[in-house]
Design brief:
By secondary structure, this protein is an all-beta fold. Helices cover 0% and strands 45% of the residues. The strands form two sheets. It has a six-stranded mixed beta sheet with strand order 2-10-9-4-5-6, with no helix packed on it. Strands 1-3-8-7 form a four-stranded antiparallel beta sheet, with no helix packed on it. It is globular, with a radius of gyration of 13 Å.
Length: 123
């Protein structure tokens, strides 16, 4: 059974940092690109970052480029999202999923999402 468990969220002041983790199971993690998505209240889920199966290629949404960094540890079936210089508009629930179409794609592969991890940026 495919499962995603996100963690690391919290309340942080503008300009602060957080590191999110996503532990995945139930599929061959090392063969698939992975993606971070986020969903703010009243908004659609949006793609934040993608990472190739080897970790050698990463792609970011324009809104987070230069502030967020994603990485992965295939030995632990885990991906990470280092978020620096956080802004109030980064407030959302953050989710991970495997990716369809490799690192350049935008779609998620599995419909069973994890619970996500809440990030709130506020003074």
């Amino acid at each position: 059974q495919v499962q995603f468990v996100e963690s690391g969220g919290g309340l942080v002041q503008p300009g602060g940092s957080l590191r999110l983790s996503c532990a995945a199971s139930g599929f061959t993690f090392s063969l698939l690109a992975m993606r971070w998505y986020r969903q703010a209240p009243g908004k659609e889920r949006e793609l934040v970052a993608s990472i190739s199966n080897t970790g050698g290629t990463t792609i970011y949404a324009d809104s987070v480029k230069g502030r967020f960094t994603t990485s992965r540890d295939n030995a632990k079936n885990t991906i990470y999202l280092q978020m620096n210089s956080l802004k109030p508009e980064d407030t959302a629930v953050y989710y991970c999923n495997a990716g369809v179409g490799g690192v350049l794609g935008r779609r998620w592969l599995y419909d069973n999402w994890g619970q996500g991890t809440q990030v709130a940026v506020s003074s």
